[in-house]
Design goal:
alpha+beta; Beta-lactamase; about 25% strand
C-alpha cells in the first residue's frame, strides 16, 4: 500500500488535534517539555511547545527555546560533504589516507562514503565514552587524531555491516575543515544556516545564548526525580552531535531536502543521501548517507534522531509530499521518535479517505475523563474518531463515530473488547458546551477540565447527569 495523498484541509485538522495530543502526552509521560513543528505545502503548518524549559525556575517552554539536536548534526555534515562533491572539491570514494595525516593501515582505505553510511567498521565512541555522561570533556582534535592512528579503532571489516560511529563523523568534520580551510562551524553557517535563514541554528553550543537553551534533564529509570544536566561543548565530535536548533528551524531545513528545492543540493545528490542502502537491524529502518529511511505505516520517511545528555529529538520528512515534522524533548529518555510517529500517523489517518466535514461535527469534540480512562473525540479528515491519548500509537484504538442526531454518536467498529455499535449520548449546557457524555460501557465521562477526584473514591462519588 502507498501512503495517502495529503489533503490541506485534512492536514490542518490533524495538526490541530496533534498539538492537543502532544500537550497531553507531555503531561501524561512526565516529560519536562515538548517542542514540535510541522512544515507542509511550503509553509510552517505547526509550531508548538508544552511544559517547561526549566522546571526548577518554573520557566515555560516556548517555540523559541533552543535544543541540542545531537545526531541531527550528521545530516548537516553529510549535506556539507555532498556540497563539496557537487563542486568537485571532494569525492565520495576519497580515502582516509589521502584526507588525513597519519592514520593506521587498517583505516587508510576507508572512504568518505563508508564514513557517511556507517560502514567503516570504526569504533562507535572511542575506547572511553564517559564524555556522554559528562564523566569528562568530549574529545578534541588531538584525541581524535590519536584514535585514528590506532589500528584497534577499526573493530569490524569495512562494509561488513552497518555500524554506527560518532568517531567516523568526527573525521568527516575534520575532512570538511581540511578541504575548505575553514572551521566546521563556519562551513555549516555559510553553506546551510545562512542560505535558509535559520537564525536559531548553529553547529555547536553557543555560550552567548546560554539563556535561550532548554534545560536538559536526567531519566526516571534510575531515580525518583529528574535533575538538570549542564550543557557542554562537543569538541571534535561537533560534526556528529554538536548542533542546536528549534523544531521550527529544523523542519524548514529538512523541507529544503525535498525534491525540486536546490538551495542546498541538487536532486541527484539528495537521492544519494536518501537511498536507504544499509539495513540497520532496527525493523523498518535503513540508512543512507547521513539520513535514515524509516517506514511509518504506509509512508516512507527520511530523517534522523538525536540523543544528547538531557535532550532527545527526532525529525522526519517525506521528500515527495513536501512534509517535515520535528519533535524535541528536554529529557534524556524523552520519547521523541514515538511522538513524531504519532503525529505522522494522525496525518495519514486524517488524509485516508478525507471527506467534507459534516455540519455540527465540531460540537462533539473534546477530551473526557472517567475513573478508568481519558478519551478524546477528535475530528480528522472530516470524520469523528474515538481516541485514547494515553496510548503511544494514536492510530491503534481509533473507531470511527457516526452522527445519529444532535446529541448522539454511534461507535462504528473498533475492537470487540470495546463497544462497537454502542452509543455516545451527550448532555449539553445552555451555551452549547458539553456537560457530560455517557460513553463506552455506558460510563459517564466529564470534560477533563471538569473532572476532579475526591480525597477518597467511595460509592456514589460521581453523581451521573439527570
Amino acid at each position: 500500500m502507498s501512503a495517502p495523498d495529503l489533503d490541506p484541509a485534512a492536514v490542518a485538522q490533524a495538526l490541530a488535534y496533534a498539538e492537543d495530543w502532544l500537550a497531553f502526552r507531555q503531561r501524561y509521560l512526565r516529560i519536562p517539555g515538548v517542542q514540535a513543528a510541522a512544515w507542509y505545502d511550503g509553509a510552517l503548518a505547526l509550531s508548538t511547545a508544552h511544559g517547561h524549559a526549566d522546571v526548577e525556575r518554573g520557566e515555560a517552554l516556548t517555540t523559541q527555546h533552543l535544543f541540542r539536536i545531537a545526531s541531527h548534526s550528521k545530516t548537516f555534515t553529510a549535506t556539507a560533504i555532498l556540497q563539496l562533491v557537487e563542486r568537485g572539491e571532494l569525492r565520495l570514494d576519497d580515502r582516509c589516507d589521502a584526507l588525513f595525516g597519519d592514520v593506521s593501515d587498517a583505516l587508510a582505505e576507508v572512504t568518505v562514503r563508508e564514513l557517511l553510511q556507517h560502514t567503516s567498521g570504526l569504533v562507535r565512541d572511542s575506547f572511553d565514552g564517559d564524555f556522554w555522561q559528562l564523566g569528562g570533556p568530549f574529545p578534541g582534535p588531538d584525541g581524535l587524531a590519536a584514535l585514528v592512528e590506532d589500528a584497534k579503532a577499526l573493530v569490524l571489516q569495512r562494509n561488513e555491516r552497518f555500524k554506527y560511529s560518532n568517531i567516523g563523523y568526527g573525521l568527516l568534520g575534520l575532512a570538511i575543515e581540511g578541504v575548505t580551510g575553514r572551521t566546521y562551524a563556519d562551513v555549516i553557517r555559510e553553506s546551510i544556516v545562512e542560505p535558509l535563514g535559520l537564525t536559531d541554528t548553529g553547529a555547536e553550543y553557543d555560550p552567548a545564548r546560554a539563556a535561550d537553551y532548554a534545560t536538559g534533564y536526567t531519566a526516571l529509570a534510575y531515580a525518583e526525580r529528574r535533575v538538570p544536566i549542564e550543557h557542554v561543548d562537543t569538541g571534535a565530535l561537533a560534526a556528529a552531535t554538536g548542533c542546536y536548533s528549534t523544531a521550527a528551524n529544523l523542519v524548514r531545513y529538512f523541507a529544503a531536502h525535498c525534491r525540486g528545492d536546490e538551495r542546498l543540493l541538487d536532486d541527484a545528490s539528495k537521492r544519494q543521501m536518501q537511498h536507504g542502502g544499509w539495513p540497520t537491524d532496527t525493523p523498518d529502518k535503513r540508512y543512507g548517507l547521513g539520513l535514515s529511511v524509516t517506514e511509518v505505516g504506509d509512508r516512507t520517511l527520511i530523517g534522523h534522531g538525536g540523543g544528547y545528555p538531557g535532550h532527545a529529538t527526532a525529525s522526519a520528512f517525506d521528500p515527495e509530499a513536501g512534509l517535515a515534522v520535528s519533535v524535541f524533548t528536554n529529557a534524556i529518555d524523552g520519547p521523541a521518535e514515538s511522538l513524531l510517529h504519532g503525529v505522522v500517523k494522525l496525518l495519514d489517518r486524517a488524509c485516508d479517505g478525507a471527506l467534507p466535514t459534516p455540519a455540527g461535527s465540531e460540537r462533539f469534540t473534546g477530551r473526557f475523563a472517567s475513573l478508568w480512562s481519558v478519551n478524546d473525540v477528535a475530528l480528522l479528515g472530516g470524520r469523528l474518531f474515538l481516541m485514547a491519548p494515553t496510548v503511544a500509537d494514536p492510530a491503534e484504538p481509533m473507531p470511527e463515530l457516526e452522527i445519529v442526531d444532535d446529541t448522539t454518536l454511534r461507535i462504528a467498529g473498533g475492537s470487540g473488547y470495546g463497544a462497537p455499535g454502542e452509543l455516545l449520548r451527550y448532555t449539553f449546557d445552555a451555551d452549547g458546551s458539553i456537560q457530560s457524555l455517557r460513553g463506552p460501557s455506558a460510563s459517564t465521562l466529564l470534560p477533563l477540565e471538569r473532572f476532579a477526584l475526591p480525597d477518597r473514591v467511595t460509592v456514589g462519588w460521581l453523581a451521573p447527569p439527570s
